[in-house]
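Page 42, continued from yesterday. The earlier attempt failed because a stray header line got pasted into the input along with the sequence. Redoing it now with the clean sequence only.
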Amino acid sequence: MRFLSPVFLTLSILLLAALAQAQSDAGAAAKAAFDAGDFSKAVSLLKKLVKADPSDAGAWNSLAAAYLHLNEAGKAEAASAEAIKAEPKNAEYWGTYGFALAAAEKDDNARSAAVKASELDPKLAVPYYVQALVSFRAGDHAKSFGLNEKAIAADPNFAAPHLLKARLYIAHLAQIYDKEVDRDRTKGQRSKILSDAAAALARFDSLTPGHTSDSKMSAPLTVLNFFVEYYKWLAQKDQDGQNASSLKGSASWATVVNLIPPGYKEKMREPKDVVRLLVYLGADGKVGPILVLKGLPNGLTEKAIENLQQLKFTPARKNGVPINVVRIVEYTVTAL
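This time it went through. Structure tokens are written below.
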């Protein structure tokens, strides 16, 4: 849910189109509450609308959107199901239903609903985004990227796909670190990937004023831009023949931690998983910016970052001189 509810802002404008045409005072008041960001009030007013007219599909659909803003995925799912019941061939309502199911992490059902929406209207952005998100969670990043690009092409001002695009680029960076043999060859590639991620995140921020990505990602724009510049500097040093990152035999840092909160075992997709962080270790012995390459839910990523920020280390050296380096740190989490 972390990045689902706030990025629903753009979609909500479309969902409220039916309410804008409503003649009732409740409909106008609900739209005003939505526009003001008072989603609790919008829910209260919309519930009155659907109670007075259970066949009002537009009101049900907008109620689902209000619940999504309030992080109440189950209620959003139920409301959007009522909208579909009233108008079963409405592609927009099927898209909202898929979004609600994705918010509830019912990914298989979310994909089916989104596919149905695309079949009814292939021009809608939301169904492609839902399919992209589900594919991303399943680890199929190539498929996710293609679907997400369709969502952006369908509606460039829909914020959610831009945030997912940034996450996809960061996931690609993590794959490079996993697979590469000669990391010196990929400095320029890493800088390009991070630049693309930063651009996507900046676009998301521009579309969601007051809801910047810093509060929705563990890799805010400032951190991404820092590593972009670092890798550019590193590549330039190598072009100049200084080989700034050659650190044969340098130490690595790895910590095994048990940070599973109560009930986390049931939510884990794997019995053992990791939080993978890219960290700047300064020549002055201080931990710098941290980029999350792979996170975990339930506060585990945040706890790993907090732990890493307190890391004491001896700076890497080259020719006896302390230097700045970037290293990957992994925190292994096992089921209790």
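Notes: The CA atoms of residues 149 and 161 lie 8 Å apart.
Reminder to self: strip header lines before submitting.
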